[in-house]
Each structure stands twice: as structure tokens, then as C-alpha cells.
């Protein structure tokens, strides 16, 4: 997974605007990490997929996953964006505009080369994890809004299992790396407890 050529290569994230997902550069270590994560998710082991692979750089892992979760949040919001109106979201009448601005703000942060250096071997900022934590706090609001205001829409589209799987992956990741506090996750407390309980049950079954 390491680059020993001595040449600087671009990290996998590329500049883009909301409604587009970041592409992966197949020549980079980040892409290898991306493939590793996809592989562990592919066998259904979400809990294992969040853990840092042995011998890899924690900042590379956090950066790669930040982009992945950012893209997922965008795609999930796009599913309900047309249904996000003042009628469907009476308690948050500007929800559509807010979510768009939130995701654009995340775009700007992840595209800032001083925070997410685009070239391999360029250093990450000293407090990179704090920037990541702020991004995940914002992305959680996307999940919270979809679950509280558009879950019926998700069910009607038949994407509830996918939504739950995506959110479970997000939840396990932020808990594993302590990116969010329990108080940050309070709006989805019931769902969180249900998903975590299911995870513990599955682990017990595997041990038998």
C-alpha cells in the first residue's frame, strides 16, 4: 500500500461541487485503503471495516473515510431532496437550503489543500482530527434530518436497509475514533441503541 517511488502522487480526493462525488486516483495509497475498506464492507463486516489497517497512517485513513462518508451523505440526501419542502419539513422550513449549504461547506473544507493536502507525502495539519470531527458533526445532521423528516420517503423508495447500513457504518466509525460525543448523537439515540444492540448480538452469534 505504500508508495516507495520517491515521487509525489495525488491523494485520491479531487475538487468538485455538491451533487458530485469525489473520484479515486488508482495510483495512490489512498485508493488501496479505499479498496481495503470496500472489501471488508463487501463481506458484511462493518465493525471490522472501520478499524485502521495495520501499518497504515491514521490521517490517511481518516481522510479517505471522510470523503467516503461525505459522498454517501450527499447521495442519501439527493434521494429525498425533491421531497424536502416547507410542507414536508414544517419544523425546518429552510431544510433544503440548509442541507445544501452544509454540504457545500464540507466541500470547501475537504478541498482546502491546507487541511486535506492533495499530494501524498505532504503533511496533514497538526490538529487534523479536529477538522474531521467537525465535518462528521455536520454530516450527522444530514442523517438526523433524513431519519426524522424523510424516513417514510426512504421506506417508500425501498432504501431503508441501505440507509440503515450506511448510518450504522457512520455510527461505528465515529464511535471507534471518538469523533463525536454521545450528546452529539442524541437526536438519533433510539436508532443508535438499536443498531449497536444488533451489532453486539451478531458478535455473540459469531462466537458460538
TrEMBL record:
A GO MF label: kinase activity
UniProt keyword annotations, A-Z: Kinase, Transferase
Keyword GTP-binding: no
Signal sequence residues: none
Xref: SMART domains: Mob1_phocein
SUPFAM superfamilies, alphabetized: Mob1/phocein
Domain of life: Eukaryota
Key word Transferase present: yes
UniProt xrefs under PANTHER family: MPS ONE BINDER KINASE ACTIVATOR-LIKE MOB
Protein name according to UniProt: Mob kinase activator-like
Organism of origin: Anaeramoeba flamelloides
Amino acid at each position: 500500500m505504500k508508495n516507495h517511488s520517491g515521487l509525489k502522487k495525488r491523494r485520491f480526493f479531487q475538487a468538485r461541487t455538491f451533487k458530485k462525488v469525489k473520484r479515486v486516483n488508482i495510483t495512490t495509497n489512498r485508493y488501496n485503503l479505499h479498496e481495503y475498506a470496500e472489501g471488508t464492507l463487501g463481506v458484511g463486516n462493518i465493525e471490522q471495516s472501520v478499524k485502521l489497517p495495520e501499518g497504515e497512517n491514521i490521517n490517511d485513513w481518516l481522510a479517505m473515510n471522510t470523503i467516503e462518508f461525505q459522498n454517501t451523505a450527499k447521495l442519501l440526501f439527493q434521494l429525498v431532496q425533491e421531497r424536502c419542502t416547507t410542507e414536508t419539513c414544517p419544523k425546518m422550513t429552510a431544510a433544503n437550503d440548509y442541507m445544501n449549504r452544509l454540504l457545500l461547506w464540507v466541500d470547501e473544507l475537504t478541498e482546502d489543500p491546507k487541511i486535506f493536502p492533495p499530494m501524498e507525502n505532504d503533511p496533514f495539519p497538526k490538529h487534523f482530527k479536529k477538522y474531521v470531527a467537525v465535518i462528521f458533526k455536520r454530516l450527522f445532521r444530514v442523517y438526523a434530518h433524513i431519519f426524522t423528516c424523510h424516513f417514510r420517503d426512504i421506506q417508500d423508495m425501498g432504501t431503508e436497509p441501505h440507509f440503515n447500513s450506511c448510518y450504522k457504518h457512520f455510527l461505528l466509525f465515529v464511535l471507534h475514533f471518538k469523533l463525536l460525543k454521545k450528546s452529539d448523537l442524541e437526536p438519533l439515540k433510539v436508532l443508535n441503541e438499536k443498531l449497536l444492540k444488533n451489532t453486539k448480538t451478531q458478535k455473540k452469534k459469531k462466537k458460538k
